[in-house]
């Protein structure tokens, strides 16, 4: 009994020592030992092999040519506009068949619509050996299944405990470190130490997710006194960005572990946390943010203007509040590579704990971060136009599509103005084909 | 934490035979059904469909939603959902019985019922006017719209009763490839 106990203790000690030496210390110093790179190379090679096996297997099973699936749709959209479809057929004015166009469009929207689709995870063209993405692929071969089983064992029995340990270390050091730094009086030393603590803990947490992040255009990194704006895919976005720089976070005060972290970090660094009641008061929020931005010695604020998590294939409407504060906006585009793990948090389907568990049992989180040149509001441009301009820039850089819809619509009703547009278009067609104007001649000839 | 892998809904085989949709297509529709069912009730309510942006901007929104909730029902279960959508399965290149839901005749019947609100098998002048009003909104004044409706009805009505029966309606749209216009192709 004792032997087992002491053996277990020794194993745990060795384990912890290895983790500290190989991961924590290098990340504190900002150095890389190359272990993650080797892991990623092995992973890429395995997944390529798996893809080739699947393609071979699929070709054998279904010899006829399949239509190449569009990565983001399940139905083939007929993009004929209303004009071509209806007006092209008109002899006179109204045809009973006009209704076909609206009918089909309506049912297409029921089967699949652009917005709701953005709130389900991106479908992969080939399987990446994770059960959760296995929608289209069935049993292909024994070898593939064996590799998959090995993958499951590796992910759950090795990677998960490792990542969990790292995450625990990261969060604990963040809380302890920032509390200690928070005791110091405000000074340059304090800011320097606070930045060090934040950076180190972010790096540890990114290793906890096996994150491989490629930063582009570092010369455009957000400066002090500015506002950093990025597209939102998951709660991890903040960690991804703080891995490379220090920001002042903006958000609502939460309870539980998150609340503890928030209270600890705000002592060391002027993050902006709002009480739930304050969030409703937009003027108060804007005022506090404006004060923060006006102080040029303060770190740049990090804001996600979409307001909710989108599945990283598109950018939805930016809420204009962030763009009314003034100051310089530094847009950042974040694009995750879904091949290695799906970072999207579908908050209506998974709670935060199951989400974190999924993330920690994925292969890795790979993403690209593009820093873009700063943008300022032009003369005569209102907040909404400015928000759209920034959004277009981010979408273009990240290779995401732009949608005019509000992310909040996934929970709320649509306004009537969109319907009026369609009605206007149809009426124009009736008028254009001369029917309404010619009605007088029509009745006369009766 | 593995897959929330799709469990097939009950009665899949029978539903597949009845609707002519393949089991794979039905599985996709089932996922969609679950995605639309916001509060996980197990059935759809009119509000679930009305919250879809693509549908809400469609002038025929209420009629389309009404197709899923006949006779004032407030719930639509998955078989109902699948049966209505089965009308949009492309008939070409797939085995299709003459009376099946995706045959051209069935598709026409489906559209006819969108016009025929009271379900008496005839499209009356008032019903036609209502549909026209939905499609143009407030853009066109009453008299002009009434004249359009009257003329359309006059031209299509063969029996001279002043209402359109199904055969008249079918004749009026016969120039169109109904199957192509009223089909939704699902990608594999």
Biggest sheet architecture of chain B: none
Helix and strand run of chain B: HHHHHHHHHHHE
**Biggest sheet statistics of chain A:** 7 strands, mixed
Quaternary status of these chains?
A: heterodimer
**Radius of gyration of CA atoms of chain B, rounded to a whole number:** 19 Å
Helix content of chain A: 40-55%
Largest interface: A-B, 68 and 60 residues
The percentage of residues in β strands of chain A lies in 5-15%
Number of domains of chain B: 2
Helix and strand string of chain A, N-terminal first? HHEHHHHHEEHEHEHHEEEHEHEHH
The global form of chain A is: flat
Q: If strands are numbered along the chain, what order do they take across the biggest sheet of chain A? A: 2-9-8-3-6-4-5
The CATH superfamily of the largest domain in chain B is known as EF-hand
Keywords:
heterodimer; A: 446 residues; alpha/beta; 7-stranded mixed beta sheet; 15 helices; 51% helix; flat; disordered C terminus; B: 188 residues; mainly alpha; Recoverin, domain 1; 2 domains; 52% helix
Give the helices and strands, then pairings.
The complex is a heterodimer of chains A (446) and B (188).
Chain A: H1 2-29, H2 35-61, E1 75-76, H3 82-87, H4 98-111, H5 114-117, H6 142-182, H7 188-208, E2 211-216, E3 227-230, H8 237-242, E4 248-252, H9 256-268, E5 272-274, H10 276-280, H11 282-294, E6 301-303, E7 314-315, E8 329-337, H12 352-360, E9 365-371, H13 383-398, E10 401-402, H14 417-432, H15 439-445
Parallel strand pairs in A: 2-9, 3-6, 3-8, 4-5, 4-6, 7-10
Antiparallel strand pairs in A: 8-9
Chain B: H1 12-19, H2 23-36, H3 46-50, H4 53-56, H5 61-68, H6 78-86, H7 104-115, H8 125-136, H9 142-156, H10 166-172, H11 178-181, E1 185-186
